[in-house]
Design the sequence.
């Protein structure tokens, strides 16, 4: 009967949430906005790159002077430029409109500015003068080097494949940091998206005066657990909806969005950090959910419960104020405090787990702490719901709730 | 009235309930037999709802035994219980049929059976066209009908109705009474809280009157009437009615009075005493004291005191 009721509660809660128009409006607004942004960025990027390309190959009349001796006259003449005999005259011709542009290359273009003069063609088109001046210099330098490979090497865009070792074994580096930190991202998304729903989940029974009907029909533990599980399911649905435009954007519009081409095959999924990350996520979720449900059970209205929500949210962001210390000096007292203080522990421990500074002992300590406290807080939440939700109009006193014999 | 068996379905013994320093129930003992309709009567704040909540495990008693069918109530037993609480409420933003089906499933019915039963019930109470409406789009009376449906949809063995008729118009009150009667015929034991004394007198096999957290009267209607003298005299008169240890003057106007006998003195003796005292008696009728009269007698002082406040 208990299991049947749990599944009944879960299906009722999930179905009624997913069939609400309000839920889909709230959920879809983020991907819709993301889609619009992706579309606009894509359009802008293609417009910008085509403008940049057209500026590089822009045709206009220009002359130049070259104090460096690097500029190759053949390259200049190929694109219609001429060498100026006098800089002052050339600038005057630009001023009068006889000449579109004039470039004065200094003795050392690497440290000194190249002077570019041009006829104003609008703020977005004026960039073509600098683009062409730069291209002339780059092409001239490459010609001087005389070897395409050397020319590429000079530019510094070189593929590197590094291997580092930790305790005698190959360490993942940044590729090993990213996967465990995904649990931190999931934790934030779940708490931020669902925190308010967690807080108000049992308030509904209270505000609708349905508590007595519920408490005489099913065990309050079943109800609270059912609500927690259904919230998690709803959260997964929301995450998938949010992730959809990101995945589509990455797969099909990566070039136009200028997204880096991640080689996911290089990511290192080390079992230890992944298991620790997953356990920290579940423990942290349990602790925060239990706390928010407990708060909801003692508050008479959603408005009053909402005041507590702000404090809870602040607690999960506080570790980021010392993120540098968390990464660089995990033994610092403040980092140790945040690692073990229950409401900052999930974020701090997941960060340290990702960066490899959470020892096995510390991992076990924090995970046990989160699970034990999570279980206790859930029990407290059930008890507060049982005795708090019957106080329809007033905030229940903790002393009253816990004084009752059981 | 239904014939009740002697074996109690509800058993409450020396129940005490404190909230902090405040004692709501001092010492309460009674039982409800299987198949009977039991009236749980008392003024506002006398502890009726507290007793029901403690019986159903919502409150933990400070002391005493509260059993249903020989053991403390557990929610898992809920499929044999139908409880209509005083605080009415269902999921207001959900559709009527969805809510009824949900509760039906929690009470052990299959989804199909719960939905089918709900549709039949809604048809019967004139709400068939509201099956897909949200509850908060229904009137208060309509919502109560839905909640009553949720209460009885599992064919409960014990039906606890806390002021079931509150907010119903006479037509719907009759409908409700018919439904309760059907539940009784189907074998349900009914515990009803009501402030309608005529209703209690008509429906209940036995009653208990609760005052200040203790039983003021308890038993069948005739037994309770006997506990309060049993007989009431209504008379028109002129003169001054003397005080007497044999009766209380429960109502008195210029030429009309109601006397409630406090012992079993013969009515003829009372009449003779009045005449001997110089009262000119124009009419003199006797009847069994009604529950309403008993209620007024028991709680009149308290209400007067409340009124004074």
Sequence:
């Amino acid at each position: 009967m208990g299991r049947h009721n749990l599944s009944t509660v879960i299906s009722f809660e999930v179905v009624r949430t997913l069939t609400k128009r309000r839920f889909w409006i709230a959920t879809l607004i983020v991907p819709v906005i993301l889609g619009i942004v992706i579309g606009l960025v894509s359009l802008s990027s293609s417009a910008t790159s085509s403008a940049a390309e057209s500026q590089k190959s822009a045709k206009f009349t220009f002359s130049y002077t070259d104090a460096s001796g690097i500029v190759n006259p053949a390259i200049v003449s190929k694109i219609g430029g001429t060498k100026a005999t006098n800089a002052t005259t050339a600038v005057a011709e630009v001023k009068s409109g006889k000449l579109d542009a004039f470039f004065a290359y200094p003795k050392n273009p690497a440290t000194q500015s190249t002077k570019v003069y041009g006829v104003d063609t609008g703020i977005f088109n004026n960039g073509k003068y600098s683009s062409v001046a730069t291209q002339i210099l780059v092409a001239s330098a490459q010609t001087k080097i005389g070897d395409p490979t050397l020319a590429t090497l000079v530019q510094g865009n070189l593929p590197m494949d590094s291997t580092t070792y930790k305790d005698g074994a190959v360490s993942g580096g940044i590729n090993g940091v990213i996967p465990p930190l995904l649990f931190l991202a999931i934790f934030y998304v779940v708490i931020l998206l669902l925190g308010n729903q967690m807080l108000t989940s049992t308030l509904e029974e209270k505000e609708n005066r349905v508590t007595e009907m519920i408490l005489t029909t099913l065990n309050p533990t079943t109800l609270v657990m059912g609500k927690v599980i259904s919230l998690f399911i709803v959260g997964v649905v929301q995450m998938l909806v949010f992730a959809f435009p990101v995945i589509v954007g990455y797969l099909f519009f990566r070039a136009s969005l200028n997204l880096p081409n991640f080689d996911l095959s290089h990511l290192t999924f080390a079992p230890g950090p992944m298991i620790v990350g997953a356990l920290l996520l579940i423990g942290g979720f349990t602790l925060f959910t239990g706390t928010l449900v407990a708060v909801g059970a003692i508050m008479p209205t959603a408005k009053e419960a909402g005041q507590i929500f702000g404090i809870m949210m602040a607690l999960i962001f506080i570790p980021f104020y010392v993120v540098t210390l968390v990464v660089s000096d995990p033994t610092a007292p403040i980092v140790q405090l945040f690692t073990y203080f229950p409401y900052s522990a999930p974020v701090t421990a997941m960060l340290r787990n990702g960066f490899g500074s959470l020892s096995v002992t510390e991992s076990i300590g924090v995970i046990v702490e989160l699970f034990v406290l999570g279980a206790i807080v859930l029990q407290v939440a059930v008890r507060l719901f049982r005795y708090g939700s019957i106080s329809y109009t007033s905030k229940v006193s903790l002393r009253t709730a816990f004084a009752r014999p059981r | 009235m239904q014939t009740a068996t002697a074996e109690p379905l509800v058993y409450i013994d020396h129940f005490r309930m404190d909230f902090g320093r405040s004692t709501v129930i001092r010492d309460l003992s009674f039982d409800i037999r299987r198949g009977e309709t039991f009236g749980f009567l008392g003024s506002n704040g006398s502890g009726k709802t507290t007793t029901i909540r403690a019986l159903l495990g919502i409150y933990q008693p400070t002391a005493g035994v509260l059993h249903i069918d020989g053991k403390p109530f557990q929610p898992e037993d809920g499929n044999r219980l139908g409880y209509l609480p005083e605080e009415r409420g269902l999921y207001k933003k959900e559709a009527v049929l969805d809510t009824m089906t949900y509760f039906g499933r929690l009470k052990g019915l299959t989804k199909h059976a719960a939905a089918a039963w709900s549709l039949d019930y809604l048809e019967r109470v004139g709400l068939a066209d509201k099956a897909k409406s949200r509850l908060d789009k229904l009137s208060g009376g309509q919502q109560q009908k839905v909640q009553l449906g949720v209460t009885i949809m599992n064919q409960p063995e014990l039906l606890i109705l806390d002021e079931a008729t509150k907010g119903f118009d006479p037509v719907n009150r009759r409908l409700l009474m018919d439904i309760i009667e059907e539940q009784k015929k189907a074998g349900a034991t009914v515990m009803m809280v009501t402030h309608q004394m005529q209703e209690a007198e008509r429906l209940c096999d036995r009653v208990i009157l609760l005052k200040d957290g203790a039983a003021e009267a308890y038993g069948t209607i005739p037994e309770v009437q006997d506990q309060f003298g049993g007989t009431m005299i209504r008379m028109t008169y002129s003169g001054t009615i003397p005080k007497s240890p044999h009766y209380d003057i429960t109502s008195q106007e210029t030429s009309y009075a109601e006397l409630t006998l406090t012992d079993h003195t013969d009515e003829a003796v009372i009449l003779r005493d009045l005449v001997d005292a110089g009262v000119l008696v124009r009419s003199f009728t006797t009847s069994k004291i009604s529950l309403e009269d008993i209620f007024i007698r028991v709680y009149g002082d308290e209400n007067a005191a409340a009124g004074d406040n």
